[in-house]
Records
---
Amino acid sequence: MTYYVILLMNKNRCIRHSFFLLFCLFSLSVFAEDGRRLWLPNPSEGKADVSGIRGLAMDELRANWQGAPVELKRQKGMPKEGYRITATGGRLQVSATTDVGLLYGAYHLLRLQQTETVGETMDVVEQPAYELRILDHWDNPDGTIERGFSGHSIFWEKPNGEVIRQYARANASIGINGAVLNNVNAKPQTLSSDNLKQVKWIADILRPYGIRVYLSVNFASPIRLGGLPTADPLDKSVIVWWKKKVDEIYRLIPDFGGFLVKANSEGEPGPCDYGRSHAEGANMLAKALKPHKGIVMWRTFVYAPNDPDRAKQAYKEFQPLDGQFLDNVILQVKNGPIDFQPREPYSPLFTSLKSTPVMAELQITQEYLGAANHLTFLAPMWQEFFSLVEPSTLKAVAGVANVGNNVNWCGHHFAQANWYAFGRLAWNPKLTAETIAREWLAQTFTNDRRFVDPMTELMVQSYETVVNYMMPLGLHHQFAGGHHYGPEPWYTAPGIRSDWTPAYYHRADSLGLGFERSSRGTDAVSQYPPSLRDLYDDIHTCPEKYLVWFHHVPWDYKMQSGRTFWDELCHKYDEGVRGARHMLAVWDGMMPYVDSERFSEVQRKLRIQARDAVWWRDACLLYFQTFSHRPIPQDVEHPVHNLDEMMRFRINITNYENPPFGYSR
Ligand code: GCV
């Protein structure tokens, strides 16, 4: 349209206007920062399909490396996917045994450049801690994403090959080498021949970046897709159906990774429907995949009522099966025993499955940590997990992705940091949250220390701040009925299972607060190794961050600070609110260092976060006060709402965007 207008103008004006237009386009392309770029340097041309992985590494360096020429060298005997970067006497070399190692080395070199840490002499040797570093996408065939807060799926509905390529590039830059393309609540149509063609198309785009595809499968597929009368894993026709299906997949995708399975959990079908064990179900699939070197990732996220305490149920179902799984089955265990709560102790399955490969499932998407509205940097939480679960006991790591088709991929500019952190920790679980935050900030925004220093501190503290204003001291599952975003510790509904209500978890009464899981209660502590069991069992030695997870704590119990438990609870909530406000204040001071687009988008979200923190504090304290009958301490900011106001409030859960108070009801 613009061009027609210009052509109708006289020649001089036309030239002037053309220059102006070009200038605008140039400025837009140079200065526009909408978050699309992620932490990466400018995109290469992406000729991966023609030039192979090694060619891709060369393309990336050609397009983005600004130093002396780099030699990419194949070197025998290095760990698969590992690489070495050396710089001596002006000679720079990236060596690796595999092409993908060279690609990872090239990205690492670019990371050093972006973070201004390239040395004149260097000898950097890297290899991943885990062979499998996987993103689990909870994407549905209609393009929606379960617990996704950043738009629709990039794989389903209306996929765009270039977007998928950019996604692959981002993953390769942090070492992620697998993607489960669909929701664990899997539709049987996932395995239809038509759908498999689309999976092949995606696999072809991801392959040059060293990424294999996996699929979540519905255990009842032989019935619902194949028309068989049963999905019993010991039935011959079922075994043959799966074998044929697996063979069909491998004809299309020779490097297909395998299946992820959610079975007999939250209404999904599974082997127990036929009186078979999880091991029998998993092994049947594993046998079909074995000839192709495929694997089964079998989830332990089950909570059948085999015990009155939900925290004990998965252990009770899976621990007795230890040693019964074939060697291409990996049990995929969520980091905590319940369900991705803001803070959980680790799942005791990690330390009790001695003869079965186990992988950790972490959640990158912020289902329980403020969706795409709250800045919550998750690396400190994952570090806490790795500090208790020895990384070498794990076979692999998976993260539930937060990627969608939003312009900035993750809904919140800082949510990108969690995708980044997951990849970096899956590569090296010993990296500190601070290192990762620094790296990410420098690559995504600027190297200016006036920005990186305060923002690193802000990011690292953000997790504790969020825990404080949501569920401090071991509280868990205090979420609203219809969503996992805001507080409703009072929530219940007619006929609802009790373990879907907050009261099941907080157990507030006139004596105190918390779930007695010590030996005097449900004895969940006995699922941990003796040293931790004893630590958690005694209220006086139990870390305070897990206090009400393991104990029903008297309101007047004396805390380490010298305060009563009630006063401490009030202080923690208030600390959370102050922390959220502090984040906003720090960010406001960052205006000179950030482009205006991202500055105002993040500011808007931090304001929502600070308001939500008040919502959490007021709702929880006012509600628990009806049990404690104690005053809120003088030195804590007092609730600015009434409990009945909190109880009437409803948020619009289609986008969680409604400012909580005084705006809409
Ligand atoms: C994919 C929780 C979530 C569900 C999720 C489930 C799971 O219950 O709320 O959305 O389902 O975990 O991990 O299977």
---
Amino acid sequence: MIKIICVCGARPNFMKIDPIMKAFQKHGGFETLLVHTGQHYDENMSKLFFEELHIPKPDINLEVGSGSHAVQTAEIMKRFEPVALNFKPDYVLVVGDVNSTIACGLVAVKLGVKLIHVEAGLRSFDRTMPEEINRLLTDSISDLLFVTEQSGVNNLIREGINSDKIHFVGNVMIDTLLANRKKAECSLILSKLNLEKKKYAVVTLHRPSNVDNPQIFGQILSAFEEIQKDLKLVFPIHPRTRNNWKGKDLGNRLESMTNVILLDPIGYLDFLCLMANSALVLTDSGGIQEETTILGISCMTLRENTERPVTITEGTNQLVRLTCEDILSHYRDLKSNRYNISGKIPRFWDGKAADRVAEIIHNTYSKLI
Ligand code: UD1
């Protein structure tokens, strides 16, 4: 049996860990311990995803909650170490690029436990992004690196990572999307919100660089004021964004837009249904750039850079600079094309990435013993 601790902590981790846990079970030969760090804790940021995706209840929840980067990272490390000591795993597996990823990764390697990083190699080349630091550090200490797109392989090789450790397997988050696409069609979210297919855009914003900065957030809101005259905007608000602006001028401006539907964060299936039937998505999320590529929906990414370039070169994504003018000019271009943009499915985004991960870990382990 391969003893492996699987770590998740924040919302985008849950749809990545789910297919991996299922693939381990299907493959056989794995004894898993699922650890939730508690980085995200609101019901609709965490529990809802476990219920909808039928992810097994975490064996352990470290319940770290929110805090500054240092406090959150340190608290995860402190609470994760005794868990790892007690379980004595052969591997710790982390996904994505959140604080839980690097915190548990560091604990593992300092205990001499081999580290696996799923979604390795992505680089925005912007070190002001907390996630970029998490990615660089996690990759540099990992023993097995599973990559979603060719750029990831190139980045890791350039950084001097031994190619034997790198495996281009595809995208586990897309495994989850493909497995749930049919189910999402049964969501009642469109009728609940009185939406017509292709007659609205979906908005998500949570990057500190966008939503913590009043000037930039103000530019984005000015653009939304114009766009919503034309197209309804559906905006499930991340707690960071809501907490920043509630009761303040910018929050009031957002709330006063008559053709914007503001929602609390919603579940995976409802969100997938919303995206799949939208005319357009405006976002600063990483994962949504990939999901819109698979769904064939135009995505305006409100960022200067992306760590997922294949969504632009092959998919339906475009980067948009953070000025009202740029956002509106991209919007008008897309509108004149009826929001259509052509794209193709990137290599290995075929629903089988997690199976490849399980097989490669199994084979690698077999060679060690
Ligand atoms: C984190 C990740 C980011 C990921 C995002 C997805 C890091 C550095 N960032 O950002 O990469 O894209 O998750 O959502 O790990 N809060 C709640 N309820 C919750 C969780 C958070 O109200 O369940 C609020 C708190 O005010 C908290 C703030 O959101 O301080 C930010 O949460 P945090 O986990 O620190 O970072 P995110 O912005 O969610």
